[in-house]
Amino acid sequence: MSVIPENKNTAGSLLPAESTRDPLPFQILKRIYGYSSFRPGQLPLIEAVLSGRDTLGILPTGGGKSICYQVPAIAFGRCTLVISPLIALMEDQTRALSARGISAAALTSALSSDDFDRILRQFREGRLTLLFVSPERLLTPRFQQAAADVSIPFIAVDEAHCISEWGDDFRPAYRRIPEFVSHLPARPVLAAFTASASPGVRRDICGNLGLANPFFLSTGFDRPNLYFSVHPCENRIETLLSLLPRYRDQCGMVYCLTRKTAEHLCTRLRHEGFPALCYHGGMRTDLRSLAQKKWLSGECSLMIATSAFGMGIDKPDVRFVIHYSMPADLSAYYQEAGRAGRDGRRSDCILLVNDRDLATHTYFIRSMQSQSARIYAEEKLTAMRIYTAGSTCLRRQLLRYFGEEAPAFCGNCSVCLRMHHASAVNRRRMSPELLKRLRSIRADLAAKHCVPKHKIFPDTVLSAMTEECPETLSALLLLEGASPVSCIKYGADFLKEIRAWNLSHPIR
């Protein structure tokens, strides 16, 4: 490992003058952040950057990604650029660093002309330790001209999954980072960090950023304190209203797919006596900022939001994240659900599933112009559909999606707890009575539509229904021998009967 450069900037004034046997990263961690040890994965990533090696770090939400680039930035002693996708994220980090005595600033569109000029002047004069910028800002002539006069030792790319068109927050400007780097007087060390990236997205990050023989480290995606649950429901609002009282006065989030749904749901919850806030990209900036401030401060504990809310939010005591609608893929779901329980305490991640979600996502996917994008989106939706079917351990499915192996039984998800209890009662669900009811429904449908009974569903599928008790169309489609046409055309009556059976014969 090469020698860590002497610090001549902010960190130097905060570190002790006397010699110490602790390496510089530990000195910075102790004196500036007040911690005596790094979290898993942080130190190897920091050491790789300080040795001059390009780096890709995958750390789960709450794993401390910011430390991995802030400590090297302080150690380098010259201005590090941090490329970040959100104004709120940049402003939060700038405030936190300034409170610790670190000279940091963010160039955002919210700045006045005078403030923008002041920060750019500080950047040119070498008076900043970290400068946060959006990827869109990099290639503006004014910023390029300023950067050409500055010796930049290190560029950190935060939320690096945004560089991949297969990611969930694709930002085309991220693809032009190498173009910006090519115009600098000397190539800096490049490091990319993200919380959720499948193997394909990781390859995209390395290729599109041009990382040279990067040091790669993933600390693992498992969050043992998170309880995962799939909750099939016909009436989502009623289901949500039945769930929320158990979290009274606890901090949580409810994610919606659309702005309209978020607004409608927030209004309904307020009417029902829940002090909810709303956050989505269509709101005025000042109203979004106010909602975020109230939620972060604990003034209001319930946030109803679209995916526009949450990236980079550092709130450790989120006890529940409920998805009111099913996301289109597991990566987006896991990143949003992972905002719960960052303090390590038990927290719930609940996904409400309705058959209409699958139909909605399928409709939008089929309208895509690009065949490759359509195929990839279908693959992601299939993984999401299998997850919502609830037939195998939810945690295992999530971890395997990100390329990690996991035991078949985690003991802390709705599927494992259900299977554990089902085993204890000797699979009581396999009931001749339920099979008799399903056969009666099949006979009625066959008579109504003038088709043979086996054209509705064969006996093997009815037996599978009796054994597996699917509650959603997604789960029904997974049964061996179940025709998609029959499931879509006739499945509703069978699912209704099975749901009623499950309610009257609970095993949870």
Count of alpha/pi helices = 23
Give the overall silhouette: elongated
Q: What does the radius of gyration come to?
A: 26 Å
| Mean pLDDT over the residues | 86
Biggest sheet: strand arrangement: 3-4-2-5-6-1-7
Largest sheet: 7 strands, parallel
Helix-strand category: alpha/beta
Please give the alpha-carbon distance between the first and last residues.
54 Å
Low-confidence stretches: 1-19
% residues in beta strands = 5-15%
Q: Fraction of residues in helices?
A: 40-55%
The total count of strands amounts to: 13
Describe this protein's structure.
The protein is elongated, with a radius of gyration of 26 Å. The chain has helices at 10-14, 24-33, 42-50, 65-76, 87-99, 113-124, 135-138, 141-147, 177-182, 199-209, 236-243, 259-271, 285-297, 330-337, 355-366, 371-389, 394-401, 414-424, 432-449, 453-456, 459-468, 473-477, 484-504; strands spanning 55-58, 80-83, 104-107, 130-133, 154-157, 189-194, 215-218, 226-232, 251-255, 276-279, 302-305, 318-323, 347-353. It has 508 residues and is an alpha/beta fold. 45% of the residues are buried. The strands form two sheets. It has a seven-stranded parallel beta sheet with strand order 3-4-2-5-6-1-7, with helices on both faces. A six-stranded parallel beta sheet has the order 8-13-12-9-11-10, with helices on both faces.
